[in-house]
Amino acid sequence: MSVTLISDPVDSSPNQSNSLPVSPNCQEQPLNETTIIDPDRLQVDSSTQPDMVSGAAGTIKIWAIFTSTFFTIFLAEMGDKTQITTLLITAESHNPWVVFLGAGSALITTSLLGVLLGQWLARHIQPQTLERAAGLTLLLISAIIFWEVLH
Amino acid sequence: MDLQLLGLSFITVFLSELGDKSQVAAIALSGTTKSPKAIFFGTASALVLASLIGVLVGQGVAEILPTQWVKMAAAMGFAIMGTRLLWNSSKPTED
């Protein structure tokens, strides 16, 4: 399902069905980070992809998000206690692939939980508040990692 | 398939990762993105790759060093990490 913001100067048509009022001269605006969303003027289109980007530019954006997330998390995780734990369990178990299966599925589960929680927060908290909190959190994590490196 | 080892690995890594900075980062990133799928796949594959490296290095260490040394190092490593975590969780919030 994708959501588009309908902008129109005059909202003249009465609400005849379950759909939201849309005037014939309406224009669609793509959503970006600074769009202020008025819930009364959202039109829900169920025919497009779940993610709210589309087209060639959208595909590049998705790959950019994937790649930046991948490298950031990968570098943060190298030498992290979870990786050391996996290493130690493997070293003393002599059964590396079972350990990899267990550890890998645990990590996929926690990633899924994290992303679902983030999405839940996005639905229940104002975007600006959430962005500020997310920004501060990431800065804090960055500071923690610097601190770990320098000690 | 050693189910006990499978379960142990899963639970240990799961608890270790819960609330870990990489999970918090995933929460923060996915709360403000238009593409949560990309965040999930990026995070999951990065973590799985990191754990694969851990497994390969662990296996290499196990083959090079005597088993007793490895077990001793594992025991000490877990003791240190466990103690540090307990210490951190019982201290009042600092800085």
UniProtKB/TrEMBL annotation, chain A:
Places the protein is found: Membrane
InterPro entries reported for this sequence: GDT1-like
Membrane topology of this protein: Multi-pass membrane protein
Annotated stretches, region: Disordered: 1-30
One Pfam family of this chain: GDT1
Record field: transmembrane: 52-76, 97-121, 133-150
Keywords from the named record: Membrane, Transmembrane, Transmembrane helix
Predominant location: membrane
Domain of life of the source: Bacteria
Record bears the keyword Cytoplasm: no
Protein family: Belongs to the GDT1 family.
Protein name: GDT1 family protein
Taxonomic path: Bacteria, Bacillati, Cyanobacteriota, Cyanophyceae, Oscillatoriophycideae
TrEMBL record, chain B:
Record-linked PANTHER family: TRANSMEMBRANE PROTEIN 165, TRANSMEMBRANE PROTEIN HTP-1 RELATED
Main location group: membrane
Entry similarity comment: Belongs to the GDT1 family.
Membrane topology: Multi-pass membrane protein
UniProt name for this protein: GDT1 family protein
Membrane-spanning ranges: 38-57
Keywords linked to the UniProt accession: Membrane, Transmembrane, Transmembrane helix
Cellular location(s): Membrane
